[in-house]
Amino acid sequence: MDRRDTVVAFRARLSEAMERAGVKRSTLAAKVGIDRSTLSQLLSNENDRLPRADTVAAIASTLQVSLDWLLGLTHEERLGANILEKSLQIQPRSPVDEDLMRWHGEATGYKIRYVPQSLPDQVKTQALIAFEYGALHDVDRDQARTRQEDRLSYSRLPETDIEICMPIQALHSLARGEDIWSGLSLAARVEQLEEIASQTEELYPSMRWFLYDGLSHYSAPVTIFGPQRAALYIGGMYFVFNTTDHIRVLTKHFDGLIRVAQVQPHEISGHVLGLLEEITASDARAAE
After folding, report:
1. Domains in the chain: boundaries
2. Rounded mean pLDDT of the chain?
């Protein structure tokens, strides 16, 4: 491979790795320690030079790809021979999920992809939190409230980029007080739906929420922190994947949910308001 071919391969793979990671030019430039204009020049089709060796190494490390792959010398993207030893961690769930908050902070500037266990924390009302943690101690509810406030604050940061996917049936079950929401009062459900409609309007497009058909597709709760890690929640603990191949597979799975989504982010608020009309009308008929 001559120098021109190497430059072309580097430019294409740098663009590919950035797109897959959901990282912005300004963010990558800051992490690598170069000017945004320098990075833009490296991505330009007019560029015919490679950056310095330390810059290429820093880019590869930041994007979690191998140096040889970035330069087009190999099709193997993984970082090293010991990848299997470091590919998986089992992380107990802490009372306030300190690890999750730290991982969110470390992923600032990257795209966060998220399939929640029930509802996204950032849109939960205090009444819903009290219902979910009703059988637990007061300290657990207080910690859950703290987590909700932290997640909402994170979602409001200007550099935030979050995609959320969940089954449409889960939202409908909440509206109708079915399944795990059986016993949640109508007033609490109305308040929660109003909060969802409000927050999805306020946070769009930084936070984009998709609803897919849970009858034809399934996902366990998972959070993908850009190219850095993915945390799969299995109840009481997380399986944390740190390697490119695992993160790529989970990202592909998430993107598949987006492709089949029945309700798009700009439609969420209207869809929720429609559910509100449905349950209030049903309640009025029941009262007659």
Report:
1. 3-70, 85-287
2. 86
> What pLDDT score does 263 carry?
98
Question: 79: pLDDT confidence band, cut at 50, 70 and 90?
Answer: low
The Cα 124–Cα 184 span in angstroms is: 13
pTM of the full predicted structure?
Answer: 0.70
Name the CATH superfamily housing domain 85-287. Answer: Endonuclease Chain A (3.30.870.10)
Q: Which amino acid is at 108?
A: T
What is the Cα–Cα distance from 209 to 158, expressed in whole angstroms?
A: 17
Q: Reduce the secondary structure of the chain to three states and give it as a string.
A: CCHHHHHHHHHHHHHHHHHHHCCCHHHHHHHHCCCHHHHHHHHCCCCCCCCCHHHHHHHHHHHCCCHHHHCCCCCCCCCCCCHHHHCEEEEECCCCCHHHHHHHHHCCCCCEEEECCCCCHHHCCHHHHHHHCCCCCHHHHHHHHHHHHHHHHHHCCCCCCEEEEEEHHHHHHHHHCCHHHCCCCHHHHHHHHHHHHHHHHHHCCCEEEEEECCCCCCCCCEEEECCCEEEEECCCEEEEECCHHHHHHHHHHHHHHHHCCCECHHHHHHHHHHHHHHHHHHHHHHHC
Rounded Cα distance between 15 and 272, Å, is 37
The dotted CATH code for 3-70 is: 1.10.260.40
Question: What are the structure tokens assigned to 64, written together?
Answer: 């979690």
CA 92-98-100 angle, to 5 degrees, is 80
Q: How far is CA 94 from CA 100, 149, 235, 238, 284, in A?
A: 9, 17, 12, 10, 43
Q: What is the pLDDT confidence band of residue 102, given thresholds at 50, 70 and 90?
A: confident
HSE toward the beta carbon, residue 179, CA cutoff 13 A? 8
